[in-house]
Specification:
7 strands, 247 residues, alpha/beta, single chain
Length: 247
């Protein structure tokens, strides 16, 4: 039944929002642009993969050519399943176990919304970045109605909804607090911690309700509406690049 409903969704999407892609794809494109300079790369909260397989199958030759490629996560089991890291480090992203100036690029893909002390994370990211290094972040936009509603749903029913709509097990779902998820919050914290805001992009994404088939039509119409530039602040996700200033 779910497969049939998904098939109906994709047929409808081709008509209502044919050029909408997942925000993970946009994050991938920005990531690849950052990797062109062959940075020493650290991925925060990396789990067992950089991005979903449908969004990016990494070029192993590119990854091997990077001077350093590390991932840090609190979950050792997930780290051990990561196929592409050169260094797997179990640790707390608020207190990174690396020397100062060890990396040129730090990334966080759908991680910062779970962090209770985002300014502390930024301080330590700035410490481990060399001057001029970049912090690339992909996270929900709390200013969008969808994310504003999600922030108010109690965790237990939210887990059930996420599990249903995203086909994820409960042990792969973490509480979100959304403390680094608006332009104002990001601008203020980056200025306090030695970064300047290089780019900030509101990003559309696929419908969360796509597993409902034709019942996803209202969300698809909403997504189509937010493609208008004047309504960009209502898009569900953001992709941000912060540039580290002098040490």
């Amino acid at each position: 039944m779910k497969r049939r409903l998904m098939s109906i969704y994709w047929s409808i999407k081709k008509v209502l929002a044919p050029d909408v892609i997942s925000s993970q794809v946009r994050y991938r494109d920005v990531l690849l642009s950052q990797l062109k300079v062959m940075p020493r790369w650290l991925d925060l909260g990396c789990g067992y993969q950089f991005l979903p397989d449908w969004a990016w199958i990494p070029n192993q030759e590119l990854l091997r050519s990077l001077p350093r490629l590390a991932g840090v996560d609190a979950n050792l089991e997930s780290l051990q399943q990561h196929a592409f890291l050169k260094e797997r480090v179990q640790g707390d992203i608020c207190h990174l176990p690396f020397r100062s100036g060890s990396f040129d690029l730090v990334t966080a893909n759908m991680v910062m919304e779970h962090v209770r002390e985002p300014e502390q994370v930024l301080k330590d990211v700035r410490r481990v970045l060399a001057p001029g290094g970049a912090f690339l972040c992909h996270t929900p936009n709390r200013s969008s109605p969808l994310m504003a509603a999600a922030a108010r749903i109690p965790q237990r029913p939210k887990n059930r909804l996420i599990g249903f709509f995203e086909d994820r097990s409960e042990d792969d779902i973490y509480p979100a607090v959304y403390r680094f998820n608006t332009l104002g919050e990001i601008s203020l914290m980056s200025a306090r911690t030695g970064f300047h805001l290089e780019s900030f992009e509101f990003v559309v994404s696929e419908a969360v309700t796509q597993v409902l088939g034709p019942l996803a039509i209202p969300e698809l119409l909403y997504i189509r509406m937010t493609q208008w530039e004047r309504l960009r602040k209502l898009r569900p996700d953001i992709v941000v690049v912060l540039r580290a200033g002098p040490a």
